[in-house]
Amino acid sequence: MSYNPLRSLSPRSVLPAAAVLLVLAAGAAAHANRPEPFGDQVVAGASDASPVSAQSATAEETDFKVGPGVEAYSKATGERLWSYRREGATALHLTLVGEDAAVVWDDGMVTAVDTGDHSVRWHRSVPGLADWLRAEGEPGAEGRTEAQRKQLMARRAAEALHPSADKVHDAFVTVVTPGLLMGFREHDGDLRFNSRPPAGCTFSPGTTAETDDAVLVPRLCPPTTSAGARQMPGGVMVFSLTDHGNFLNTGPDVVMRPLDGHRISIEDGPVIGSWVYDTTLGSREAACGTAAPYAAARPSCGK
């Protein structure tokens, strides 16, 4: 019986091993070059920016340019610090929430970026947002120029995004469309509340107002035309991390204006008049010079 411990491999026996190595190498290369989730492309710094300056600039020290992605520049030097794009999508509007930037994209995605280390914190898709931004099929849509279409999308993106910098519970971002609103916790994108208006009614993104701890969304319900149909009231929906869906009875043409971090001035027509709602207390503010009906309703008297 022969014994050859140094038996060499023939060329035919080497081929399978080489093929395996090629497959593994190709797989590793594909893994290394695969696109980031959701098409994210974040580039730190630029030819005129050092990694140190890109990491050290705070949100207050940074200027942002939106479209087609997000570009961050140093207010002090003008150097580009970092850029953020999503493949196949265009950034329409950005708002700051603490050290994070919330961005609305034309594909209906909302993302949050940590402006300190320029990492993408979270992505959330809002149903119906992209369709409302594009306004396709609405009256006058066919006659809009490309410039008018882009201008409308940017305006609606700004109307949709409402940040609240709640330092007690958690900062959050509310996205409002006529048919849906969703509130996301700022630091992780956790869905904290959502609501749809009753049938036949819509939310009003353009007249929505926010304070540090709440967002107030008008609900519009047109008059009913069928006999015997129950008229749904208009009004204002109040959402926060602690009180989801408090309702304020108002007229259809209510105008809201933030006074400070927790008080909203409400102009409710010539009959009802003006009053102030305190979003921290969750109640109407008592008028100055009158006794407060509840201990919690403390009139500020302009202070």
Describe this structure in words.
The chain is of the alpha+beta class and 303 residues long. 18% of the residues lie in helices and 35% in strands. The protein has five helices and 21 strands. The protein has helices at residues 11-33, 51-56, 129-134, 146-160, 269-272; strands spanning 40-44, 62-66, 70-74, 80-86, 91-97, 100-105, 109-114, 119-125, 161-164, 172-177, 180-185, 191-195, 202-203, 209-210, 215-220, 235-239, 244-248, 255-258, 263-267, 274-278, 283-284. Strands 13, 14, 15, 16 and 17 form a five-stranded antiparallel sheet that branches. The radius of gyration is 27 Å and the shape is globular. The termini are far apart. The model is unreliable at 1-15, 17-35, 47-54 and 289-299 (pLDDT under 50).
Write the layout of secondary structure elements.
Layout: H1 11-33, E1 40-44, H2 51-56, E2 62-66, E3 70-74, E4 80-86, E5 91-97, E6 100-105, E7 109-114, E8 119-125, H3 129-134, H4 146-160, E9 161-164, E10 172-177, E11 180-185, E12 191-195, E13 202-203, E14 209-210, E15 215-220, E16 235-239, E17 244-248, E18 255-258, E19 263-267, H5 269-272, E20 274-278, E21 283-284
Antiparallel strand pairs: 1-4, 2-3, 3-4, 5-6, 6-7, 7-8, 9-10, 10-11, 11-12, 13-15, 14-15, 15-16, 16-17, 18-19, 19-20, 20-21
